[in-house]
Specification:
A: mainly beta, B: mainly beta, five-stranded antiparallel beta sheet, 3 helices
Chain lengths: 855, 571
Amino acid sequence: MRAACLGAVLLLSAGGPLLAQPAAAGAVAERSYQIEPGTLNEALNRFARRAGITLSFTPQQIEGLRSRGLNGPYTVEAGLAALLSGTGLTARAQAPDQYVLQARPPAPPAPPPQAAPPQAAPAAPAMPASAEPPSLATVTVVAERLIEPANTASAQTLGREALERFPATSPGDLLREVTGVTVANSRNGSSLDVNIRGMQGFGRVKILVDGTESSGSTYKGYGGETTQAYVDPELLGEIKVEKGPNAGPYGAGVVGGVVSMSTLTADDLIPSGQRLGLRLRGTWVNQPSGTTRYAIAGPGLDGSAAPADAVTRDVSLPGRSWNGSLAGAWRLLDDKLELVAGLSHRQSGNYVSGQRGDVLTESIATPGLINRVSLYRPGQTVYNTSQDTDSVLLKAALKLPNEQKISLGYSQLKSRFGEARSAGFAEYIAQLNLSHVDKQLYSAQYAWSPVGNPWVDLRVNVWASDSTGYQAADIRTGGPETHRAAWTDTQARGLEAWNTSVMDLPVGPLTFKYGVTWLREDVEVSPLDNGTYMDPSGQRSLRSVFAQAELQPTDWLLLNAGLRRERYEVRGRGETDSGIAGQVLPLNIAHGETRTNPSLGLAIQPSEALQFFARYSEGWRPPTVKETVNSLVAASNTARVLLKPERTDSQEAGVKLQLKNQWLPNDRFNAGLTLFDNVTHDYTYGFAGEFKNAGRAQFRGWELSLAYDAGGFFSRYSHTRYRQVAFCGIDYEAGGGCADMPRILGLDTSSSGFYVPPRSQTSVTLGTRLLEKRLTLGLRMTAAKAYVTGGVLIGGWDSHEVYDLFGSWRIHRHLDLAFAVENLRDRFYMDASTSTMLAIPSPGRTAKVTLTYTF
Amino acid sequence: MTSLRTLTPTARALAIALGLAGPISMAHAVLPSAEAVVNFTAALPAGGNGARPSTPLTEAADGYLYSRTATGGGTVLNSQQGGNSAVFFRLKNDATGFEVLDSGASTVAPTSTRWLAASDGHLYSPGPSSGLIQRYRHGATTGWETFHTGSSGFVTSILEADLQFYLTAGASTLASLSLDGTQAIPLYTITNPTLEGGTPHYMVRGSDGRLYGLHTTGGSGFAGTLFRMDRDGNGYQVLQNFNALTTGYQKINAVRPLVEAGDGKLYGITYDGGGGDVSGGAIYRINKDGSDFELIHGFASNTDRAGYNPNTVLLGRDGHIYVSTLNGGANGGGTIVRYRIDDGVLELLYTFEALTGPAQNNIWTNPTSGATATVNAAINGGGNAAGRTPYHLMQASNGQFYGVAQRGGSHGWGSVFRFDPGDEVAAGSMLNDVPAELLNFGINVAHDPSATLALGQSVNLWWNTKGVASCAGTSTEPGSTWIGRQSAKATSSTTAASVKPGRAGTWTYTLTCQPQNPAYPPVSAAVSLTVVPTVADGIDVGNGGGGGALAWLLLPLMGLALWARRARRHP
């Protein structure tokens, strides 16, 4: 079969002794198969497509062989074993989701009783050297992964190659090429403020690190709220972006989407055939360090933020910008135990904005009106952009009998960073005190996937996150207002447990996933000057039961339905004026609500290359403790009306096309077009720390992605365009009408947490692989067109185009060199989707060189 | 305590409206008093600083008060009058910096009682001869100099208004004079004193731009007239004919006999009378069109505790009318009275004290015979603390009241005194018959009768009074700072008392004021404050959470799983 025989020619390294590798973690999940008896070639290709794995074998290996077919739920390993049963072949895992066929080794001779220790009986003995597949003459046939099924139609995964293409300055750099995703505030401290299809801020987009909730929001005065995720991109191995409400285990309380980041695994670090892998990496950045010492008026770590108590003290910023990491993995106990450890350090001073550009721009909504984009000037040091971060990662995975696996993880990130405040006021264009955070994540995962039991594929994740943060106060010396310093202790505990059962129904195989989730956040804020207004303390819990069913009546039709019953409870304490002079009215807040969120989807696949899909899903986002309390203590909320949860109705439909070997040998072409329409009812917005429900917010648009890879040449194009952005039923519109973009925003509007995505966002990447693919060179262009200009003070971010140059060179098999020149034209620009009052310029032209040594 | 900057704008505005923005000054209970700031010594071997001041203090633009004494500036006490040398002196308006500017002959400074501090910073005074106006420029070596001559008759007063001087002179002349003294223009000449009055002696400019003045003679009552005319001399009109028996009569001895007050009326004094209730002069008021002449008080000479011979009518910066009398009163040495325009109360503020101390420096030497003798007690009968027989009363630009007293002081040779009107008057000070009233007693500017506030907060109590001598606060709150003496003249705009309850509960705060006229009963009013804890009982918000168990949702899933298992076993 042609499709099955297409593939890249891979030169297999004949490194160390080949071992029968265990299946990758992803292979543990069962999937239902219906493969008719036939040639082994056809059966293996169908299996590989269905399982989403790459399976390599030579035509000679399977010539004349047949398979008895496969019917029912199987894990990848069990399915392969069943298909290859009686053929004399076995499949060996090389990497996650990559297998190679090889002759089944002869049964090991029975060891002499006196010579063999009891524990020395390996389940999968090492292949004899003669059994290794030919290293250079072997033609490996790759079975391609099918297009993702309907329930994950809007998911996009960034693997290591994509993550390592550019040495990341901030986590937001990793998501620049994802359609429908804009990263705002990525230059502001540790901020990672992801906008997915218009939804941004207030926890609308959940950010997970190894399944652990890892984001929080900070109030920044008139700048509004920003979301921060304390993640070191150096230790990440994969990022998966799921758009829209999600009925899966991590979808509770999600309206915008989920960004799941996975830290490095043993497979990321250990070379094929090895038991030990180490990676040493260093990145040097030519970023000007600028001034490193500032005398700042402000309180100490435990002082009052009152201006009268302010003291002038020295704040030192990192001088030279660089980051480095050491990561290693070790497989022990016959590969039953995997250990991963990593260390990372990242430091950078305040960067300098681009030299080329103008701070004045003409308003889009009101032609002729000239706005000032920023109070920063081109070529100016951008204050509060420094960071000094250390990270530790420790992971262990132990395989237990009966296909059980336990994984434990621990990570810690300590960072001291600048935090920009309202950039709309001149007094904030200054170096402020530094904030810092100490965040520790603990996770334990259990998996049980007994072979041959289609009813059980059990997963349990238990995690804890403890974070202690100091939000530095800044003092506006020119006025009476102060923003208060505070210590914040956040404890989050979570549990996700679910099982996947596969059933053969008369109408087709049914994959049924069901489980429970539980999350509890406990936030304790200790303001340093008795202020309790901006960041109150309290608890929020969110628990849900969910069920997802995926039915495949035919080869070309996939139906998906999900139901999530969620309940949130919030408990908090607040204080407000009682109406009596000088009297404080305590508010004891205890509230809970329950809702059922459905999702429906279908995928029609008339051919292996083409898929149509559509999905409708609902999600909700309960208000956080801060939103709940602050809305209640607001002077305007005399009726003490609770903030309502946001409810999002998400619709999307699209088509995916995947072609291979069309124009050049082994070339691949992928295209996708998705239309989306999200309506969020009771959209939350806030001004000066008070939160309200708007009537609704609507984001409508489309995404287009094109990718072509011919080996020696590759290109990617992604484009997101919004056809409608509207906020309805807000205070600032007469009669509660809609603020339809484009329009100019007033001070209130631009400071009230209305996240306006760009009118369009485009990313184009062109690259080539030379010298037997040892050298890669490429150019990336990202462009954003502004939908709106900001308020009366400054315009905020404006339309821009940014060019980046990147490349990598494999010096030898242990040493890789990567380099990048970002913002090649040294443009003065600001990240798209950043709120007007927080818009700070992005770095000017920056060169980075990364050396990675692996062994 | 919640600071203002932590409050929302609404709450901040509310706090300010409620008077929580900061403490407000407490009312004081200070009775009127006077003190000598300069005691004249008469001639002394080391040089006397003067004796028997004879000219009102006049404040110039430099903040100094200028005046002169009749005598007492020499080194030898060679006359009954304290020595023959006059003294031209000044002192700062804060009562410091007394300085003898000139001493010697009586011509060291004009003897007129109508000095004028003009807008050019110089002093002007009618001169000692017909048609003469003198000028004093401080720092000039010429001393008092001739500024203008040629006007008809002796100039009796000078008024500066609208870039002109206006003069009263002789028996019949009302004239204008250019500011440089070169152009004197007669504005109006009296031709029929019986109808128009005669011998003009004082003019003021009204708020309507007209000139209002007084004659000491003529008129239908032969006791002078009150007239008005336009600044160009047109529209001359007699507004009031004075009568010795019914209104008292005008006399040039009254140094400041007319003023316009904030209510638009003219307030004036007559200096003397022909008998009866106005035998010692009177205080009157009249509309500027001549209507509604009202005799506020007639001074009965010798028997009136308010004194007699009023010589100054002064519009205080507090809006009230102050009058000083030269003679009489309980101690015979003059008084200061006040007429409260807002409530019609005329009250005796201060009675100059009797001479209780021995006369100092009162042995004089006859220059001819060389004999020494004791100064006549009628001239220096002894000393007292503040002086007596005030020549006038004035209010300096810094609000301080001053005057010169011709007698008394530490040496008995007179003084410059400072008068403090206080914020309360002694019981029985009221001179007219006004019932005691306590008005608008309430909380904050809204005069609420009750309010609720948190412990630790304070509110302001405001009130107005009429005819009240003293007030005292009582409260049901034990130990309240409100208990005790309170201001008897608090007004809703100027004074209030801050009350800060010290304990929770509902407390009543009562203000009781004693009438100035004992014939009337005390007046009283009360407000109520409910004092609550600083932290209210919390309120529960939300549905309480809890409940909402989700486990039942798993039941259908389990059922489906069982069904599927059964179907698989029994296809």
